Amino acid sequence: MTRLRIGTRGSSLALWQANHIADSLAKLHGVEPDLVRIRTSGDRLQSASVVQVNEAIGAEGGKGIFIKEIEDALLSGAVDLAVHSMKDVPTETPAGLAFAAITRREDPRDCLISRERLTLERLPQGARVGTSSLRRQAQLRHHRSDLDVVDLRGNVDTRIRKLDSGEFDAIVLALAGVTRLGTRDKVAQIFDEDLMLPAVGQGALGIETRADDAQTSGFVAALDDHETRACIIAERALLRELQGGCQVPLGAWGRIRKGELHLEAAVFSAAGSESVRFDEAGSPAEAEAIGIRLAQTLIEAGADKILRLAGRSVGRS
User: What is the pTM of this model?
Assistant: First the structure.
């Protein structure tokens, strides 16, 4: 029986995702996967802000802080494949690696978990809302400038525990992670796209392999979802064109409707007071071009200026 070593972070969510892929590969091909837990820079420095993590490891824009060590293990041959949340993956893939599959996407929207199950609209003035994402912070401030929106890092379990202990009145998380961990019953509100656009790649899992490992890539390819891949390609092309990392106030959502790829995106100032928002559509076969066109439209409307100012604001935090 073929044994496959799967590189993964050690959080509950990462292990769920890796086990999900391991079970799928075992059922499809009769292989025997082993999980190899790898601690990343983002995991080691959970008490620090993303900006501080970047400074500690020499990264920019939050790029790769949750996957760099896993990719290093993949390149060295210590593991055969890696399972990533696509929202954590930089737009540039290291030479020698490739994404053999992007699996069918879970609902990519964000959700609110709050004490007393209050929705965003019903939270009292000055309520303390936690999230580590500048994108979420900016959109929260855009709709509720009266809230005390503060940085909150840690895995899903840690964040919910801090909410339950009274440190926060509400927290914002990715619905996909909450669903995968079986805690969807805690959700007070699922944000529609008019209220909060999700992160690029949110809800999708990417399976990374060595480009020259034809056997492993072949096993993994059976898990690829073509529609999800097209949407993720468009979103990541948009992000790359805007030269953004995971810590920029950019929301984007690509969807297939009646055979056509629709991509919507918005850029916000850190305070949420300024924003530009547009959409683009076309054939899924032109996914990358759709993302680039939409990025150019956003830039022409002033998105690059907003992102530069937001980047300086993050650097001062």
Answer: 0.91
